[in-house]
Amino acid sequence: MPFVKSREISEDDVSFIDSIREKYHLSRRSDFSYYIALHLCDLLKKGGYVGIILSNSFLGTEAGEVFFESIKQHFDDIRIHISGNGRWFTNADIVTVLLILRKKDGVHLNDSISFFTWKKCLDVIATRSDYMNSIVNSSILDKAIDGSVINRVNYTDNDLNRLKNLNVSYNSLFSDLKWLLNISDCLIPINECFTVFRGSRRGWDAMFFPEGETGIEPQFLKDVLINARNTNHFDATTDRKAFCCDMEIAELESNGYQGALSWIKRFENETNGTGRPLPEVLKQSGAHWYELKTDEIAELFTMMNPDNRMFYAKFNTPTFVNQRLIGLKRKKATDDLDLLHALLNSIVSLFYIEAVGFGRGLGVLDINKDSISKCYMLNPALLSREQSIAIKESFSSLKERGIVDFDQDMDDPMRQKFDLTILRAFKIESYYSTILNSIRSMRRIRKAVNQNNVAIPMTETVEFDLDNDVVTRAAENNNKF
Question: So what's the pLDDT on residue 50?
Answer without folding.
Answer: 95
